[in-house]
Specification:
Structural class: alpha/beta
Bound molecules: flavin-adenine dinucleotide, 1,4-dihydronicotinamide adenine dinucleotide
Distance between the termini: 75 Å
Shape: globular
Radius of gyration: 24 Å
Number of strands: 22
Amino acid sequence: MDGQEFVVSYDLIVIGSGPGGYVCAIRAAQLGMKVAVIEKEKTFGGTCLNIGCIPSKALLHASELFEEAGHAFDKMGIKVGAPALDLPAMLKFKDEGVDGNVKGVAFLFRKNKIDTHTGIGRITAPGVVEVKPAHGAATTIEGKAIVIATGSDVARLKGITIDEKRIVSSTGALSLPKVPQHLLVVGAGVIGLELGSVWRRLGAKVMVVEFLDRIVPGIDAELARQFQRTLEKQGVIFKLASKVAAIDAKGAVLKASVEPAAGGETTTVEADVALVAIGRVPHTEGLGLDEIGISLDNRGRIPVDQHFATTAPGVYAIGDVIAGPMLAHKAQDEGIAVAEILAGKAGHVNYDVIPNVIYTMPEVASVGKTEEELKAASVAYNVGKFPFTANGRAKANQQTDGFVKILADAATDRVLGVHIMGSDAGNMIAEAAIAMELGAAAEDLARTCHAHPTLPEAVKEAALAVEKRAIHM
Ligand code: FAD
Ligand code: NAI
């Protein structure tokens, strides 16, 4: 046994403590399993809590208030003068939010009597995991089942080195020591637009270069067009159907070569900081997958069956490392499902109802099918739309950008998709998700009494609009 004295044996070993892994471990412990979690970083919580959802939302929140204080307070009769930015304090506010969250996971592990092992986990045989800490000797633990929840990593651009100082990924962009004068964002996806918004609000001039001829691919096209116009009004410059071919970092200012996606004349864009946000790739390095007979799919993901089982006996996988949207709540629901399946219960994830939120101002939120997807599948549908310009609360708050769009089956009226752009869209989408989970018709939403004056009344009105009977339009 390589000089080790004993092997600890578990019902379940989870590799990775992100939203997928930690939630899976807690649910398994609730169900009576003896559980171990292996995490290679110093803190628990994975990408989401340490360098993803939580720090980005803290900065989005703080920078939004900064912008409101500078531009909206005055007209509400609040005289505070021009706000001054204390960036180190704002970054500290963000770090405190992270700290509270990662400590929360450590507390939950203790509360649920989950053993934790710090180091890189490698599966040496089905049921056997070696844990290699940064210093010292490796240990081996055994488990009846192993769940791989190792998440994802930043996708890189060929020939462009991310130094996390001037050419940054989302991780560097969450901790820039000063506001760049010019920020070049590569990729008009969720990260580019959320973190681009943060730094624009704090004073940067932001240009976003996107390969496709539209922003946020995957989001309903009508919503994406209006979202783009709104961001442009806020000052973001978009260069669509373009790519960054190279970045010259030799001088004091970065010089990026930007060319049309289809090829053509190159222009040079200067920036102090470039944020590369072109997607994320599954993290499987060093796990020993080859040795246990797991081959990756063509996008580097671990293939699993409907019970999250891989091709290796007793080895399961969840979260960003498998197919599906790379979202924390998707990873969490998969974590719960696999724990329940292992306990002999009917764990299940409804992939038709996974909400998606972009936390800009206004927010963009959607669940279910887009119009483009329904057309491609030849599904007949009705559309109900309602703008926030006609919603009493939005008018009172003077936050009228955006609309609610409901897509309902033409034959049955069942809600197939809901798409919202608006100041609180991220909270409003929960109502739509519940409606879809329960198989509601647009009529059900329309007949549900909504409190007045609230923004969700726009959801009710959009549902009424499916049959062209919205009241306030
Ligand atoms: P991860 O959270 O990536 O966790 C994997 C863990 O496994 C990590 O801690 C890693 O250190 C560990 N690990 C990897 N390999 C090993 C190994 N061999 N041994 C031991 N440990 C290992 N999603 C949302 O839903 N909402 C948001 O608002 C949101 N904002 C985001 C903002 C940013 C800037 C980024 C980058 C992502 C954001 N996401 C958001 C996506 C979200 O973070 C991921 O979908 C989520 O973290 C995936 O969870 P996971 O458990 O699969 O993996
Ligand atoms: P993304 O997949 O959302 O967007 C990447 C964008 O970059 C796409 O529009 C793509 O067309 C473009 N692109 C790709 N290659 C390019 C190139 N060479 N030049 C120019 N543009 C290029 O990826 P992003 O923003 O990096 O986020 C990664 C993941 O993290 C997302 O899949 C998302 O699920 C998750 N995330 C979720 C958040 C949320 O839920 N609010 C917030 C942040 C991240």
